[in-house]
Each structure stands twice: as structure tokens, then as C-alpha cells.
Design goal:
about 130 residues; mainly alpha; Protocatechuate 4,5-dioxygenase, Chain A; about 0% strand
Length: about 130
């Protein structure tokens, strides 16, 4: 019996639930491996060789290579784990998160200081499907 998951309809949000955790298990384990300096060095010395050690999907590997954090999240990544990839690249959390939006890091930080993104215009997925 499939679970009813009404939260899957939240605008602009991917909820990290048990299904996402299972889908992204190896991606997240890879990201967490970057907490160790020797693994960061190995990754920076040869990304493809290091990624080949992890049983991720081709799409997950491509998203890592492209540093496409939105896609990594769609593929089961948890932003707290994925931040280790950005940190390995020398990025701050604000830089990582701003790369997921149309803002640069300074504009993103300013928006957050003003209280965050306005919810105006957000619509549930089911509303878009009906053309309302």
C-alpha cells in the first residue's frame, strides 16, 4: 500500500523523506566522505576516479560533476551532506545555496537578512496542473 504524501505538493520544495534518503544513500555517503582531508585531496586530484568508487547512478555522478545542487537534491541528496562538496571547492554555505537560485551570493545573503524569499506567487503543483 502506497503512503499518501500530501507534502510532495509543497511549492518549490523537495522533502527529504525515507524515499529520498534511500534514493540518495550513496550520493550522501560520498558527500560525507569529504569530511576527511585525505578524501578531499583524492577527490580534487581525480574527481572521476573518486566518484567511480561510489555506486551512484550516472545522473548523480553528472550532477556532482556539474555541481548542480538542485539536481542532486532531486536525486536524493541532502543539502547538509551536499554542502561538503561545496566546502571542498572552497565555497561558503551562502555561495552554495545561492548557486541554486538566480541570486549571486551577496544578493542571496541580503534577501535572507530581509526575511527571506516572498511566498507571493508560490503555487502548489496541483494548481499548475489545472492551469488556474
Amino acid at each position: 500500500m502506497a503512503l499518501d504524501k500530501p507534502y510532495l505538493d509543497i511549492p518549490g520544495t523537495t522533502v527529504f523523506d525515507t524515499d529520498q534518503a534511500a534514493k540518495g544513500y550513496h550520493l550522501n555517503q560520498f558527500a560525507m566522505s569529504l569530511m576527511k582531508a585525505e578524501n578531499r585531496e583524492r577527490f580534487k586530484a581525480g574527481e572521476d576516479a573518486y566518484l567511480d568508487e561510489w555506486p551512484m547512478t550516472g545522473e548523480q555522478r553528472r550532477a556532482v560533476r556539474d555541481r548542480d545542487y538542485n539536481r542532486m537534491i532531486e536525486l536524493g541528496g541532502n543539502i547538509y551532506f551536499l554542502a561538503k562538496i561545496g566546502a571542498t571547492d572552497g565555497l561558503s554555505y551562502v555561495q552554495i545555496v545561492s548557486s541554486m537560485t538566480s541570486n549571486d551570493a551577496d544578493a542571496h545573503a541580503e534577501m535572507m537578512l530581509r526575511g527571506g524569499r516572498s511566498p507571493d506567487g508560490n503555487r502548489y503543483r496541483h494548481e499548475w496542473q489545472h492551469g488556474d
